[in-house]
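Chain A, query sequence.
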Amino acid sequence: MVRVNLVCQLKSQQHTMLHKFLADNLNNVRRFSGCLRVDIYFDEPQNIMLIDEDWQSIEAHQHYMQFIANNGILKQLSAYFTVPPQILYLSKSPL
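Chain A, predicted structure.
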């Protein structure tokens, strides 16, 4: 399992529209092959969104990213960002 964090800097005054977009699309992510969990966190005063996900593998997440790039969802989501998100792939430590 791999933890995937996407740190997204949001455009101002877009929260309501972004919340609707996410409500309409998150179930598709959660049902995608290899996705184990997706949670969304906001720091609205700072215009930051954290997408916190668990995937079976990095490759499964990258397959999903390619899928949404091809179908236009990634372009729609990116319209809410000031810069591309920072994507972190994290492995759990045995400590």
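The radius of gyration is 13 Å. Residues 32 and 64 are 7 Å apart (CA to CA).
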